[in-house]
Design goal:
There is one protein chain. About 75% of the residues lie in helices and about 0% in strands. It has 30 helices and no strands. Helix 10 packs parallel to helix 12, helix 11 packs antiparallel against helix 12 and helix 27 packs antiparallel against helix 28. The longest helix has about 35 residues. It starts with about 20 loop residues before the first helix and ends with a helix.
């Protein structure tokens, strides 16, 4: 039986900020301040004209300083001083670039020595800091494309002088100070700030209690509540690893005490937290970049992503339910969880910021960043007027939240800067068209072959690279190839986003799974493979909507409805087969039958009459199997049958 912490005790008011020196805290605060000032166009109030690249240069410089200062904190002896000194130098260079940017359009042509040396220093510093904070893969990709730009003559690539390459990377709007950094500064920072404010004001605690109130009364209540909590909080943060840390500390021990193994409990948290990058309305940095890439309003991305996200979480919920039935994990006792009414009575005011966000985003047809700022203002006001369980946002807490936000987003901003370098190098060398053409030629013009090829490349790239970096690289290189085969931009880019996201769960890197395994005290490899089983639908759904745009809520309403019904039915059947439990425990041959029938049912009916017939046959088979299946067994019967199957 699950033992939940006493719901009558007040939550901890504020999580401790990560250890940081004064310089890192000051730079983090200024990073958020510059983002908000730029979004609100405060510079126009004092009549200071700015190029778009000037605040971006300041933001990159502050992010370099934050990460360098924190790296110095972790070092010892001379290396500590070197980290602090490097942060100051890089910040000074980027502030100089920002100050003199209006003149750089002329100076860059003349390639002055100071600008060339500054570019070398910034690129080297960025490479080291990205390597130390994220990993080596994205640095190696930047290095590879740089070598092709400088020494690619024998391969038919126009060679670029080293000093021109460096200055182009630093100052061109298509490179370091390009779209990825702009999206991070204008959109990602305010949404991360909103998530941090929600956590510090008790909003994350409220979401957790609501999830336990809703799902705790069902079989496997602790696991289902963990999925609900991670989904709700993940759609705000859009960061799988931080979501695992924020919610997994409580949910994973609860699932273990309820009867799930450590690896299964950790896998449930990892899969649900990763899905936060797919669940509207926020969906993480990559979704904002995607909206900018394909030049559509962000709400269109939200609408298109809604049904695939429902399929993803539907599959996880169903598998969790089947696993709970198999392990006889019961609901949470009434005395150990709050009712929904009681939870909402305490924290119902947290619904107001979300209502404001949706109103501004959809009804007022404004930019996403303005919706985030409106939600931030609403959250601060309601938290001041009505404290939650004794927690009130004070000026000191607000200052700490701003600082924590700046420190937490600095590595992400450096990742987007590195992604901007890759885009600039592809533009400089013209490799984008060449790679897309080679991909089409390798696939022989067959859509399915090209889709498999792109999926494999995305998974390989994702082993060690964050989702946003994988998406930016592949969207630049391979999205045009997908569109040339007939896919709409939304289909092509969502396809890439899904497989880029799976880097969080795919071994050997699997950052979300590793983090969850550490919290749960589980084996990393077992947790990763358990998470892959839970998240299997994320590998298949992109192929479905690539052939059936109805799953992205395009086309006719009845076509979308039929595609949704067959997809949900097929996913339910496959989930039962993967979990090994339908109405009772399934033998290995029956598990295979359920999986095959479910896959046949998932085929998009829009592909033709023969596919529709296959759908009908698969549905009939599944109904017959469920009708003949024994009803739910007792725990002892299930364990005996399980031992018999294994023997």
């Amino acid at each position: 039986m699950t033992t939940q912490p006493d719901t009558s005790s007040p939550p901890v008011a504020v999580n401790a900020a990560p250890p940081a020196n004064v310089g890192a805290r000051a730079a983090g605060f200024l990073l958020v301040a510059i983002s908000l000032a730029w979004i609100l166009n405060l510079h126009t109030l004092v009549r200071i004209p700015l190029f778009n690249e000037q605040p971006l240069a300041c933001a990159v410089g502050l992010s370099l300083a934050v990460t360098a200062f924190l790296l110095g904190d972790r070092a010892r002896g001379p290396l500590r001083l070197a980290g602090y000194l490097a942060g100051c130098i890089l910040l000074a260079i980027m502030l100089t670039i920002a100050w003199r940017y209006p003149q750089l359009t002329i100076l860059a042509v003349m390639r002055p020595l100071w600008l060339t040396l500054s570019a070398y220093a910034v690129i080297a510093g960025l490479a080291v800091l990205v390597w130390r904070n994220v990993g080596l893969p994205i640095v190696l990709i930047v290095a590879l494309f740089s070598l092709l730009a400088i020494f690619g003559g024998p391969l038919g690539i126009p060679e670029t002088p080293v000093n021109r390459w460096a200055i182009y990377m630093l100052t061109d709007p298509n490179a370091l100070l390009g779209t990825p950094v702009r999206v991070a500064v204008e959109i990602v920072i305010p949404f991360v700030l909103f998530g941090e404010l929600l956590r510090h004001s008790g909003g994350s605690d409220f979401l957790t209690r609501v999830s336990f109130a809703i799902f705790g009364r069902f079989r496997g209540g602790s696991a289902k509540a963990a999925v609900g909590t991670s989904a709700l909080f993940g759609t705000i943060t859009g960061n799988a690893v931080s979501n695992v840390v924020s919610t997994g500390i409580m949910t994973i021990p609860l699932m273990k005490r309820a009867g799930l193994s450590a690896s299964t409990a950790s896998a449930v948290e990892a899969a649900a937290s990763t899905g936060g990058q797919l669940l509207p309305p926020v969906m993480g940095a990559a979704a904002f970049v995607m909206a900018d890439y394909i030049q559509v309003p962000y709400k269109e991305v939200i609408i298109a992503a809604a049904l695939p996200a429902a399929l993803y979480f539907g599959a996880i919920f169903l598998q969790v339910d089947r696993l709970a039935a198999r392990a006889d994990v019961r609901e949470i006792d009434k005395g150990e969880r709050m009712t929904f009414r009681a939870a909402f009575r305490e924290g119902g005011h947290f619904a107001l910021p979300f209502l404001v966000m949706f109103l501004v985003l959809f009804n007022l047809q404004t930019r996403p960043q303005m919706a985030a700022i409106a939600a931030i203002v609403a959250l601060v006001l309601v938290s001041i007027v009505r404290p939650y369980r004794g927690v009130r946002l004070t000026p000191g807490i607000l200052l700490r939240v701003v600082v924590d936000t700046g420190i937490s987003v600095a590595p992400l901003l450096l990742i987007t800067a590195a992604a901007g370098l890759i885009i600039g190098l592809i533009s400089l060398t013209g490799l984008g068209f060449s790679i897309a053409g080679q991909a089409i030629a390798l696939s022989g013009g067959h859509k399915i072959v090209l889709l498999v090829l792109v999926a494999l490349i995305a998974i390989l790239f994702g082993m060690g690279m964050p989702t946003v970096a994988v998406y930016v690289v592949l969207a630049t290189i391979l999205a045009p190839a997908l569109q040339d085969t007939g896919l709409e931009p939304m289909q092509a880019h969502l396809f890439i986003l899904y497989f880029g996201m799976m880097s969080m769960l795919t071994p050997p890197v699997a950052l979300a799974s590793i983090t969850a395994a550490r919290i749960g005290g589980a084996n990393m490899w077992r947790t990763s493979f358990e998470a892959l089983k839970l998240a299997w639908v994320a590998y298949l759904v992109p192929f479905l909507f690539a052939f059936s745009p109805e799953l992205l809520l395009g086309g006719t309403w009845y076509g979308a409805t039929l595609a949704a019904i067959t997809a949900f039915g097929g996913i339910a059947a496959v989930s039962m087969g993967v979990a090994g439990y339908a109405r009772g425990l399934l033998s290995p041959p029956m598990r295979v039958v359920y999986v095959l029938a479910g896959l046949c049912l998932m085929l998009p009916p829009a592909l033709g009459h023969m596919v529709a017939i296959v759908n009908v046959v698969a549905a009939v088979v599944l109904i017959a199997l469920l009708a003949k299946s024994p009803s739910r067994r007792t725990a002892s019967d299930t364990r005996q049958q399980d031992r018999r199957f294994r023997s």
